[in-house]
Specification:
Blueprint lengths: L1 E7 L1 H4 L6 H12 L3 E8 L3 H14 L2 E5 L10 H8 L4 E3 L1 H13 L6 H5 L2 E3 L3 E3 L8 E6 L2 E6 L3 H20 L2 E9 L4 H7 L1 H6 L4 E7 L2 E10 L2 H19 L3 E4 L4 H11 L4 E5 L5 H6 L9 E6 L3 H8 L3 H7 L4 H15 L3 E7 L14 E8 L2 E8 L4 H23 L1
Parallel strand pairs: 1-2, 1-3, 3-8, 13-14, 13-15
Antiparallel strand pairs: 4-5, 6-7, 7-8, 9-11, 9-12, 10-11, 15-16, 16-17
Helix pairs in contact: 2-7, 3-4, 11-16
Length: 412
């Protein structure tokens, strides 16, 4: 089964918006066993969109479009789909009712342009949009399938996952299930080398690595007659991978590193405080995203200046004078100081050079020290990070949380 992706919108052609929809859909379709050999971006132009439909259907069985479902005059995708297949448009009452409810919740008026979004090509399957006013549609005609999805990624991804996946599974006659392993602390190339035999030799389930936001994920996907058979294939393969990668795997599915760490702290009933210099409060902000963290997170201090490190954390002036603010010794005293001052079981601290200036040959940009104090024991790790200022800060935050995670798993 072959599919082609058509992303519609002049803003994409002009580079005003990054086309993340195509990336998402290509990966999802590969997981479903649907081949994608072509992608294209077309501006909001009637003739070019119709020509795009014709050329794509000459090559494939399925077209998936994103964009062009909004309330403005240049949002033409459904209308042009109806024209291409010679179908009339009709008012879909359920979609109109939903649009009214959705805009009422947002305290917005239902305009005539919004009502136009409820018009659907006759005979089309309507895809409900839980996150917006534009319903999606599926048109089946002459052994060709046109799947029309909204442009905003939040709406598109939810609609694809909720409706399109099930539709495509019925076409293939198979159930397809995936489990994602989330990995931190090891690069994609090194990780892939360690499990190269698994990646290369696994056919059902398949194992595919993806780099994402300073971490790596592995998607294990099985195709079978039912969910139970899929799980029977996925489970052992995940265990095999875990036996090789061990503690580099911090979670599964949509679990993020910060929430995994926060959950661990809460489960172990250990109190924590943070003292941050180069990360500027990112660690504290990450932890407080977890519901219930207030029971164990006592306080966070952003001690950027040397004076603040001395006054707030009790870092010794002689330590700063001898070793500098960015040093193993200072990170150690910061972690111990915040735990002492906040009377917590855990103190976590960061000090480093995020750039773009401030680096030296001895202490370059990207040098970061992370200090973690837990119940009388202090560990300090030195990091040499790359990237711009924001990247260094984000990487330092994730590394700090990961250091704490590993310590909690090993010893507590």
């Amino acid at each position: 089964m072959k599919a082609e992706l058509i992303s519609i919108g002049t803003e994409l052609l002009l580079g005003d918006i990054v086309n993340t929809n195509a990336q998402f859909l290509a990966k999802e379709l590969a997981t479903l066993g649907v081949d994608v050999y072509h992608q294209c971006v077309i501006g909001d132009n009637e003739d070019r969109i119709l020509q795009g439909f014709k050329e794509a259907f000459d090559r494939c069985d399925i077209i998936i479009t994103t964009g062009g479902l909004g309330p403005t005059q240049d949002d033409l995708t459904k209308e042009l789909a109806a024209k291409y297949f010679n179908k009339e448009m009709y008012l879909h009452e359920e979609s109109l009712e939903w649009i009214g409810r959705y805009l009422n919740i947002k305290d917005e008026e239902v305009l005539e342009a919004n009502k136009n979004q409820a018009y659907i090509p006759e005979g089309a399957i309507v895809l409900h949009n839980d996150n917006g006013t534009a319903p999606g549609v599926i048109i089946e005609e002459d052994n060709k399938i046109l799947i029309i999805l909204p442009g905003p990624p939040k709406e598109m991804k939810a609609m694809f996952s909720s409706h399109v996946v099930k539709y495509l599974e019925k076409l293939t006659g198979k159930v397809i299930k995936s489990r994602t392993l989330r990995i931190f602390g090891i690069g994609e190339s090194i990780m892939a080398k360690r499990i190269n035999d698994i990646i290369q030799n696994s056919t059902n389930p398949t194992v595919a690595p993806y780099a994402k936001d300073y971490e790596v994920t592995l998607r294990v996907t099985a195709k079978e007659d039912c969910e139970e058979k899929c799980e029977a294939l996925i489970g052992p393969k995940c265990e095999e991978i875990k036996s090789i990668l061990g503690e580099y795997i911090y979670g599964e599915g949509e679990e993020s590193l910060d929430l995994v760490v926060a959950k661990l702290i809460c489960e172990k009933k250990l109190t924590i405080a943070t003292a941050e210099s180069c990360t500027g409060g990112l660690i504290a902000s990450s932890l407080v995203s977890y519901p219930g963290i207030s029971e164990v997170f006592m306080e966070g201090a952003v001690t950027y200046s040397n004076e603040a490190k001395v006054r707030r954390l009790g870092v010794k002036e002689e330590t700063l004078n001898k070793y500098g603010a960015v040093s193993e010794e200072t990170a150690k005293e910061m972690a111990e100081g915040i735990a002492r001052e906040a009377n917590t079981d855990i103190g976590i601290a960061t000090t480093g050079i995020a750039g773009p200036g401030g680096g030296t040959e001895e202490k370059p940009v990207g040098l970061v020290y992370v200090g973690v104090f837990i119940k009388g024991k202090t560990i300090v790790e030195k990091l040499n990070l790359s990237g711009n200022r924001e990247a260094v800060r984000r990487k330092a935050t994730m590394n700090a949380l990961n250091i704490l995670r590993k310590e909690l798993i090993r010893n507590y």
